[in-house]
Write a structure and sequence with these properties.
Blueprint (H helix, E strand, L loop, with lengths): L1 H43 L14 H7 L1 H6 L9 H23 L3 H22 L4 H4 L10 H19 L6 H15 L1
């Protein structure tokens, strides 16, 4: 029995040693495979026409982010102010930039924190603004595992929390920057 426990302990130590770099790398890979194009596709729907569309969001962007305000304004988009534009533009840019930062492993912890905030705001808008409820909303600790809000987004946030806690892991640009900054600080 001691031999079995020794083998087990050795295997666990090996897994733990490699997990420091591989777990965050795997988390970034899963994020890329499952969520990168989800967020980019969503962001593309918010861009206005042409190159200036990055700064002039589409009408659909306002409908998605401010559904009740859009209704209250009678779909007259000229009534939206600078605040509304800033929220829509920042949300659109965040949907492009934060996922990219996570995938390449640059400022990973900060980008993952930003994405957690984004997912929370997205969920609140879905529930409060778009009236998502019932089976789509779901509930934690129930027998159904596929609800859009509670189940899926709880998993998304957990995946992002791994990156907040562990960083970008192996093959992250963060590691390269850390080496560059470390070398510079040692020379100074």
């Amino acid at each position: 029995m001691d031999r079995v426990m020794g083998l087990y302990s050795g295997a666990v130590r090996g897994i733990e040693a490699s997990a420091a770099g591989l777990l965050p790398l795997a988390a970034r890979g899963v994020f890329a495979a499952v969520l990168l194009f989800y967020f980019w596709t969503s962001a593309l729907t918010k861009l206005g026409p042409g190159v200036a569309g990055v700064f002039l969001p589409s009408d659909g962007a306002y409908i998605q982010i401010f559904p009740k305000t859009t209704e209250a304004f009678g779909y007259d988009f000229s009534q939206f102010g600078v605040f509304h534009w800033a929220v829509v533009a920042a949300g659109t840019w965040a949907e492009f930039i934060l996922p990219l930062l996570i995938v390449v492993g640059l400022f990973t912890r900060l980008a993952a924190c930003g994405m957690i905030g984004f997912v929370i705001v997205q969920s609140v808008v879905d529930v409060m603004g778009h009236g998502v409820g019932g089976d789509t909303l779901g509930a934690a600790f129930d027998s159904a595992s596929g609800a859009l809000i509670w189940d899926q987004r709880l998993l998304w946030v957990f995946l992002l929390l791994v990156l907040v806690v562990k960083g970008g892991g192996a093959l992250a640009l963060d590691r390269g920057l850390a080496h560059v900054w470390g070398a510079r600080s040692q020379r100074a």
